[in-house]
Amino acid sequence: PGQEKKDRYYAGVFEHLTPDEQTQIRLVPTFHGYVPKDFPTTLRLLAEQEDRFLFKEHYLGFADYLHALAHSLRLFAIQPPRMPVGPFDFGRLIREELGRFGGFEDAVHGFLNLAFAKRMRALGARLIQVVDWHENQGRDRGWNYGFRLHFPDLPTVGYAPGSISQWYLSATPLPSERKRGMLPDCLKVPGRHLAAAARKRDPKLHVETTGAFRFSKPVQVKTGKTGPLRALVPLSYDLNLANHACRLARSLVSPAAKEKIRLIFKPHPAADPCRIGHLQAEGITVSETWSDRTFPEELAQADTVLGCWTTSLLEAVVAGVPAGI
C-alpha cells in the first residue's frame, strides 16, 4: 500500500529499454500486506498505468481460487514419518507446522500463479519471455512450474538480487526442484559469489551473473559536506528485526551528538504502517526522520547506511556508500 506508482523491484530498468521494448513489457503484481479497505485506492492508481500492468485477477476464475484455497485441506493428508535427529523428531515438527498453516498464503499464491499460466495458454497468449523476482518461495515455484508446464518452449528467467541468510535453505535449490520444473531455465544474480552460493546444493543449476537494476551508475562520492551526517536505516519487513534495528541505531547516537547525526528510517515498502507506528513514537531522544521516498532516492543523499538482515546493505556497498551492520 502506498507504493503503487513506485518501482519497488525493477527500479530504473525501463530507462535502459527502447520505447518499442517498453511497450512489450507487462508487470504482473502480487498484492501483499493489504486489507480490504486498501484495494479501491490501489486498483484505481494501478488502472492509471494499465499499459504497464497485467493483472492475474482478470483471468483467474472461481475454480482457480477454490483449488488454491483447498490446499489447506489437502495438507492434512500428509503424514510425515518419524524422523529422529538427536533429541528431536523432525516429523513431529513438520506436522505441527502443517497444523499451524505455516506458509499457507505463499502456497495459495503459488497455485494461483500456476493457474494464471494455464489461463494464458488457453487464451493463446504470445509471450516472448517471463521473468520472476526469484526468492524460491512457493509463489516462485508455482510461477516457474506453471509456465514451464504450459509454455514448454518459453524462456524463463529468475532474478535473485541479493544474498540471504544461510538458514534460508530455499535460496540454495535442490536438484529435485530443478528436475521437476520448479525453477527457471536460468537464474540471474548480480555477482560471482552469489552464483556459487546458488549452486551450493545443485552444481548443475544454470546460473549467470548480471547487473543490478537500481544502480547502473555509481553514486558520486560527496564532497564539501555541510549539515548533520545522514545515516539511512532501511528496516526489515519482520517487525522484530525492524524494532531491533531502530533501537540499535538510536543507541549509537549519544545526546551530545544528536545535532550532528540525523537518522533516516526507511520502512519496508510492504510493511503495514499501523504495525510500525509504535517504532516512530519511541524516537523522542534523537534527531530522526521517517521517509516515504524510495530506497534509491534516499541512498543518493545518505552518508552511511546502517541495518541488519536486509539486502539494502549490499546495494549500499555496490553504490559506494559506507554500510555498517
The major β-sheet equals: 5 strands, parallel
Q: Uncertain segments of ≥5 residues (pLDDT<50)? A: none
Beta-strand segment tally:
11
Strand order of the largest sheet: 9-8-7-10-11
Molecular shape? globular
Radius of gyration: 22 Å
Chain-averaged pLDDT: 83
- Continuous helix count: 13
Separation, N- and C-terminal Cα atoms: 28 Å
Q: State the order of secondary-structure elements, H for helix, E for strand.
A: HHHHEEHHEHEHEHEEHEHEHEHE
User: What fraction of residues sit in β-strands?
Assistant: 5-15%
User: What structural category characterises the helix and strand content?
Assistant: alpha/beta
**Helix share of residues?**
25-40%
Describe the structure.
With 325 residues, the protein is an alpha/beta fold. Helices cover 35% and strands 12% of the residues. It contains 13 helices and eleven strands. It is globular, with a radius of gyration of 22 Å.
SSE topology sketch:
Blueprint: H1 19-23, H2 39-47, H3 62-69, H4 71-74, E1 84-85, E2 88-89, H5 90-99, H6 104-122, E3 130-133, H7 138-150, E4 156-159, H8 175-179, E5 186-189, H9 192-198, E6 207-209, E7 229-234, H10 239-251, E8 261-266, H11 273-281, E9 288-290, H12 295-299, E10 304-306, H13 312-318, E11 323-324
Parallel strand pairs: 3-4, 4-5, 5-6, 7-8, 7-10, 8-9, 10-11
Antiparallel strand pairs: 1-2
Helix pairs in contact: 3-6, 6-7
Keywords:
alpha/beta; 325 residues; 13 helices; 12% strand
